[in-house]
Amino acid sequence: DLVNKLGDWVADRTSRWSKELQSTVLAVEYGGMNDCLYNLYQLTGNPRHAEAAHQFDEISLFEAIWEGKDILKGKHANTMIPKFIGALNRYLTLGESEVFYREAAEKFWDMVVYHHSYITGGNSESEHFGEPDLLDARRSDITCETCNSYNMLKLTRELFKLTQDVKYADFYETTYINAILSSQNPDTGMTMYFQPMATGYFKVYSSPFEHFWCCTGTGMESFTKLNDSLYFHSGDRLYVNQFISSTLDWAEQQVKITQSSDLPFSDTVQLSFELTDTCKKERRLSVRIRIPYWTAGEPTISLNGANIQPEVRDGYAIIDRLWKDGDSLHIRIPMKAGYSSLPDAPNVVGFRYGPVVLSAGLGQDDWVESKTGVNVSIPTRRMLIKDFVIPQGMSVQEWFAGFDRHFIQKDGELSFVLRNTDADNRLVFTPHFKQHSERYGIYWRFVEADSNSLHEHLEKSQQEQLIREATIDGIQIGNDQYELQHQVKGEWTHAGTWEGLNGRRAEPGGWFSYELKVDPEAKNGLSVTFSYGSRAGSIEIWVDGKMLATESIPLERKRAFYDKMFEIPAEMTAGKAAVEVKFSPIQNLNGIYGMLRSVKL
Ligand SMILES: [Zn+2]
After folding, report:
1. d(CA 406, CA 338)
2. CATH 2.60.40.1180 domain span(s) along the chain
3. Residue 34 has pLDDT above 90, yes or no
4. Which of 82, 113, 256, 380 lies deepest, with the highest CB count within 10 Å?
């Protein structure tokens, strides 16, 4: 009753929306409103609840993705994923007439998984999608928000139910092990926000009273459903999708199936069958065992001790027979180490053993947490971390051609070392989901000794380090969380995405401002990103009510951005921990984009 009335209230409000107001709402992080309103409509059958759900369907976005246009760059990832969970729910709720929404959700899944995801199944940098296939360039300490993986699994589960396509079960396994299991501290139960894909950082967890993030909420939920999506059934058909010790109590078929598995520490899985209806001697079931993409050779399957060769179709071994009480299936899936690279950097690789991502521990030096966004803790990077590997006596290509000889398992342990590199004695790779106490590296750049790429890489990481060290405070312009944290104010102003960068603009006569930390002891600078203009214009920049500078926007037809650094005079920051920085456009609509930073000069 309560939820019903809440639904009425939402329907009242959303039915009065103008087109402009609707697009303003759809531009912020509104989560799964369409999804939950379709769920409500399933319960109430009240057409007003369906209409309210439609108001949260972002049709122009769905159309672009359905047409195969990857317009995800600059979009807040964990707002996008629930929109498509909602689109799929529109199809599930209203039926075949809404097949467009199902197809949009399927295409979105392909786009995210094949063009925006890392080896762990995670996606995004600083909560946002980037350009498709640009993944190495965006590897940082704030990649792979854990909520995104939680939501991708939600979408994956529904798509598997509809299609029984094995690709969804494979992705589920990858993400479940390497992004979800990996995200919890086994000693405290606390979970992670960002999962660094850059090398040299460590896992940072929430805390019971100080750090309760979105990912803390979804994190708790994830660990209440570790038994979810292991099995699926339809009629007498059973899909064994995940290899995790569990008991399936299949009431409709009066069968109990017990799975024992210790993947990745052992490559065998045992399934025991128990008929719970003692009057029945046999039960016809079609049992489908997933043959995972990572299998290192033909799996072997035996039934009650005798080898069998079941039909393998669409990624499943199909065992269709009359099952008796006490039957047991024994499955061996050969495992070995492998690697995969990133689309924009063929020589940057992550290592796997079966489905399990491996990372190398890098010790605990300078273990300090810093803060970003709404009190989000992130790990600080260890200075001078060496994040590349140089093959010895051979080229990078030769090293990978002989991968099985160069990536060696230690006797009797699930750990691996390198051979014929400069890091043979330094790096030990172990399952990343168990790494909780050291800095780590999942991705490693392989470079030739004395090559240009080695020198370029050293120079680039030095520059990045300098920017990071110099930054006092930073705001992601146009992101409501970060803007609110920095006391955004303004008149005649709006946020949005332009050319793939988030930003904030104001009308002439309007303005917007933020509070930004400064260092009263240092010489401070303000780093701002502007957009070239097609019309003449300028923006005044004020610090605590005093004019700092007027930026004349260069008149150029090209759609591009440029960065500028303004020195803040010492008298403007003397004795202050923070200042109010205000932007007001003159003549024409104008704004700032990307990151606004205060830095030590
Ligand atoms: Zn989150």
Report:
1. 11
2. 231-332
3. yes
4. 82
Q: How much distance in Å is there from the Cα of 135 to the middle of ligand 1? A: 20
Tens digits of per-residue pLDDT, 419-432?
A: 999 999 899 999 99
Is 186:140 a contact under the CB 8 Å cutoff? no
What CATH number labels 231-332?
A: 2.60.40.1180
pLDDT (0 to 100) of residue 108: 98
Distance CA 547, CA 540 (A): 7
Cα 380 to averaged position of ligand 1 atoms, centre (Å): 19
Residue 216 Cα to ligand 1 middle (Å): 7
Position 25 pLDDT exceeds 80: yes
Question: What average pLDDT does the segment 128-157 reach?
Answer: 95
Q: 537 C-alpha to center of ligand 1: Å?
A: 38
The values of phi and psi at residue 83, to 5°, are: -60, -40
Fold for the domain defined by 472-600: Jelly Rolls (2.60.120)
Cα 139 to ligand 1 centroid, rounded to whole Å: 18
Please compute Rg for the chain using Cα positions: 27
> In the structure, what pLDDT confidence band is assigned to residue 372 with cuts at 50, 70 and 90?
low
d(CA 183, CA 206): 10
Residue 530 has pLDDT above 70, yes or no: yes
CA of 226 to the centre of ligand 1 (A): 18
| CA 194 to centroid of ligand 1, rounded, Å | 8
